[in-house]
Design brief:
It is built from 14 helices and twelve strands. By secondary structure, the chain is of the alpha/beta class. Strands 9-8-7-6-10-11-12 form a seven-stranded mixed sheet. The longest helix is centred in the last third of the chain and has 26 residues.
Length: 419
């Protein structure tokens, strides 16, 4: 269970502090990146289907623009809060830096349960929220994207609302939108595909064939389901998956296409059944005896209440911040090899970058080009992180932050503090 007093932004500060000290920076070198540059909190009134007016709370936080425009998703979830959005924005800064694309970090969110809103209510909520944050977003300033609870259709509404306000089409204001209005082919699968590349990379470094491994995936949303599907296609045996209703497990392997079809029909895993399949809790899924564990749900899932029961040899963080900072040394002592979120799940922002570049240059690339460039960038970033971790004898998370913090701090130092 998550600790209600847990502040994910404290996680960010501690990891940044550790990396900055290892890099030999003085406090004045990195003090500025410990604070978000800009935070906007908005109240979003919506006339609901029953005629009542409900005011939703929304946020857009820009952590850093030192390396380029702010970049980050918009989350629709009942647990959205300012500290979570701050942490997600900071992780975006370092994620963009570790894969070396010219963005800073941002994140947005609305406190709501999108599953309980009609399509029309979602559309009105999205358009009003876009109007409320419009002064601080734009292709040169801050480019939103999908996240938990949002999708390409919602990005299309954001793009249209922004364009209507400007008086002309501005496809580059968001990424992850439908292909028909400037979206990048392969963007919807990009985060999961990047997790698959990273999983294969870490296994290869330890002489393990992906075809021989068992995998558990926590969270069968966009990222988790695509990761599970692609790893299964690579020959891995997916023995456990879960969603908000709980999980399913089968020691001989699950039929991932059948599970995805079940979920796409609007059902949850609690109603899924097949021969040899057992129903388990999300916590039990994290403790399955598998070689690879992929947390692809929300932050703070691997914590002090369950870390000692983790049996996986490899953890690949498909979610943002799924492991609390105090668990890292415990996992390391147990011999668990953890690939951090800012590296493992960066595929989405990489292809978002491709989409933005195409939008602002009025170009179009095909899926094969996007996927091959994605693999090239993910493989290069992995090699850089793995090499520095080996050279410095530190964890992969510390290695990733050594690279990312250095790039952000050096950009800040190169620009100086205005005025």
């Amino acid at each position: 269970m998550s600790d209600p007093n847990y502040n994910p932004y404290d996680n960010v500060l501690q990891v940044v502090e550790n990396a900055a000290q290892l890099l030999g920076y003085k406090p004045q070198d990195y003090e500025a990146i410990k604070y978000p540059e800009r935070e906007l909190q908005v109240s979003v009134p919506v006339t609901m289907a029953d005629g009542t007016v409900h005011v939703f709370e929304g946020y857009r936080v820009q952590h850093s623009t030192s390396r380029g425009p702010a970049k980050g998703g918009i989350r629709y979830h009942w647990n959205v809060n300012k500290n979570e959005v701050r942490a997600l924005a900071a992780w975006m800064t370092f994620k963009c830096a570790v894969v070396n694309i010219p963005y800073g970090g941002a994140k947005g969110g609305i406190v709501c349960d999108p599953t309980k809103l009609s399509k029309e209510e979602l559309r009105v909520l999205t358009r009003r929220f876009t109007a409320m944050i419009l002064p601080i977003i734009g292709p040169e300033k801050d480019i939103p994207a999908p996240d938990v609870g949002t999708n390409p259709e919602i990005m299309g509404w954001i793009m249209d609302t922004y364009s209507m306000m400007k008086g002309y089409a501005v496809p580059g204001v968001v990424t992850g939108k439908p292909v028909q209005i400037g979206g990048a082919p392969g963007r919807n699968e990009a985060t999961g595909r990047g997790v698959m590349f990273t999983t294969k990379n870490i296994l290869a470094k330890h002489g393990v064939d992906v075809k021989t491994v068992t995998v558990a995936v926590q969270g069968m949303g966009n990222v988790g389901s695509i990761t599970a599907k692609l790893l299964a296609e690579e020959g891995a045996t997916i023995v456990g998956v879960s969603d908000v209703s709980g999980g399913v497990a089968c020691k001989d392997g699950l039929d991932i296409p059948a599970i995805i079809a079940h979920l796409k029909s609007g059902k949850l895993l609690e109603s899924y059944g097949a021969p040899g399949v057992d129903h388990i809790t999300n916590d039990e899924l994290l403790k399955l005896d598998v070689q690879v564990l992929i947390p692809a749900a929300l932050e703070n899932q691997i914590n002090m209440s369950n870390v000692n029961d983790i049996k996986a040899k490899f953890i690949v963080e498909a979610a943002n911040g799924p492991t609390t900072v105090e668990c890292d040394p415990i996992l390391e002592k147990k011999g668990v090899i953890l690939v951090p979120d800012i590296l493992a799940n960066a595929g989405g922002v990489v292809v978002s970058y491709f989409e933005w570049v195409q939008n602002i240059q009025s170009m179009a690339w095909d899926m094969e080009h996007n996927n091959s460039k994605l693999k090239e960038i993910m493989d290069r970033a992995f090699e850089e992180v793995f090499t520095i971790a080996q050279d410095k004898n530190v964890s992969l998370r510390t290695g990733a932050y050594l690279i990312a913090v250095k790039r952000v701090v050096e950009a800040k130092k190169s620009r100086g503090i205005w005025p």
